[in-house]
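User: Predict the complex with BIS(adenosine)-5'-pentaphosphate.
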Amino acid sequence: MKNIVLFGAPGAGKGTQAKLLKDRYNLVHISTGEVFRYNIKKQTELGNLAKTYIDKTQLVPDDVTIKMLINEVERFPNAKGIIFDGFPRTEHQADSLCDFLSSKGDKVDAMIALEVPDPVLIERILIRGKSSGRVNDQSEDRIRIRLENYHENTDILKDYYQKQDKYHGIDGVGTVEEIRKRIQQVYDKL
Ligand code: AP5
Ligand code: MG
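Assistant: Here is the predicted structure with BIS(adenosine)-5'-pentaphosphate placed in the model:
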């Protein structure tokens, strides 16, 4: 069982690459952002709560997000491996993931981080915003706030996994196919 944190800033290509990796290796893909969007659409209690934060371009509080993540993981007791996309995003989330997985005799095997410069991220998200229906994709100001939040709170997790010798940085600029190959080279050696 190989559990991967697929990491990167908003627009780095986590969702795009996670789907390819999932199909290739028969893994479970859990995207916290997608779970939130699903719940917002269904107007569940979790969705309504998450919406209040996401609409303000803020992170959803750790306690809510961690509880939801654990519920998601528990839906797949026979998973061959999990790709965590968009989680963890804070040190507290990373510690909680570690504690939760260890309680099941499991662990995060690697962080694969997609490195993409901010101007490329902004361009990609603005293009996606034309069709995604995601309000936070549609203005450069909102995208910049999300990127600032990422650089302040989330980027530090690279050090967190580096200290455990689990960090693998990947050049996230190029075609989807080129990046897929770079990720697979790392994954195959784990
Ligand atoms: P989330 O859905 O995780 O959004 P995000 O991190 O902002 O990342 P994105 O989904 O925007 O980007 P991505 O890296 O998946 O890139 P994609 O493949 O789509 O989270 C949404 C919100 O939920 C957060 O802002 C937060 O409020 C909340 N939230 C989620 N998780 C949370 C947590 N753990 N704690 C607290 N709050 C949380 O690619 C982007 C675009 O580029 C696409 O259009 C794609 O087609 C295109 N593209 C991809 N690869 C390439 C390429 N190589 N070349 C050109 N274009 C490309
Ligand atoms: Mg995504």
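The CA atoms of residues 113 and 169 lie 5 Å apart.
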